[in-house]
Input
Amino acid sequence: MDAAKVRELVNDPRRVGVMATTNRAGQPNAAVFGSPYMPDDHTLVMGLGETRTAQNLLETSRAVFLSVLPADNPVETQGVRIYLKVRTLEKEGPNLEAVKDRIRKAAGDRAAARVKYAVFFDIESVRPLIDWGPGSKDPLT
Output
């Protein structure tokens, strides 16, 4: 999947986004997020409040983001899995304010007020939403 297509799927306002993380003990967490976006082919940015996701990122710095663009026909659903490592997690400054402004425009003042962190991730790898494995073919084709 090329980087432009990945960016298109992540930045589409109709998409559903799910961030999966684990804590140090390996206990998983998954949560729906609207704030993540890709400003370029190598970076994912999001705003976070004081949440389990934020705590897990502070502990492990790793996450997977699923971006899903639903379709009327489930077979036509598009999506991508993005494997991430925290580059920086900022609690103040112009990057945090820029993330809050972006969220304010999309979701309003209450949503922006909850944001305590601007998180910048390096994209380590990308996989399709549905991957039939090495050498496998989609059984539906």
In short: The mean pLDDT is 92. The chain is about 25% helix and 40% strand.
